[in-house]
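## retry 2 of 3
previous attempt timed out at serialization; input unchanged, resubmitting
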Amino acid sequence: MNKTKTDKLVIFDWGGVVFDLKNIAAMKHLWQQALNSVGVNISLKDVESWWQLWHFNMLTKDTSEINTNFAHILKTLGINPTYQQIRHLRLAMDEAIKNAPVHQPIADMIRQLIYDGNCLVGLLSNTEIPAIPALSVQLPIAAFDYVWLSFEQGLAKPDMRLYEKVEKESGLSPHDIMFIEDSPENLQPAVTRGWKTYLVDETIDDNKKVLLMKNAINEFLDNRG
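## retry succeeded, writing output
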């Protein structure tokens, strides 16, 4: 894509902004659904302990390591899995997580932003390969102009090298980049580099979040200084 210095890039985090990480009940149901589909019957209380172990692959694309971590989860739940159980569980999880809880008004807003074409739209997320089916359903990765996922980059927020990579690959100046994120820690490197930043307030309802985000984005796009 050919870009000029007048281009603006609005980047979104995924987990916590689009993906509803606080809806633990829904996530526990997904874990149980996947486990049951491979013949593992476990209580919701035990499944919650799996939720606590979920972020285990944010920096790897190695299939063997991913399988090892799935096996670790099952062993933590008292199951000594076979290779087939692990493989089937991964497939079941791929299917179950497509129904992961989402902040739908925010997903719709991002989709409209992409459709309108008034700016470049990016995704910058610390995430694992097993979470990709959910992302693909909520907001197809191919629709974004830029995608930086930690397991593909081998870097995770708030590592400054990842933010430097965003600037280098986009070819944009820091003041032409806006980052929308729910973690102050992950916003700090962006602030340091001179990006426009927006911290999502998780205490307000989704419709108000969308209104405030739209206002911030429009202000950023209107400022061509």
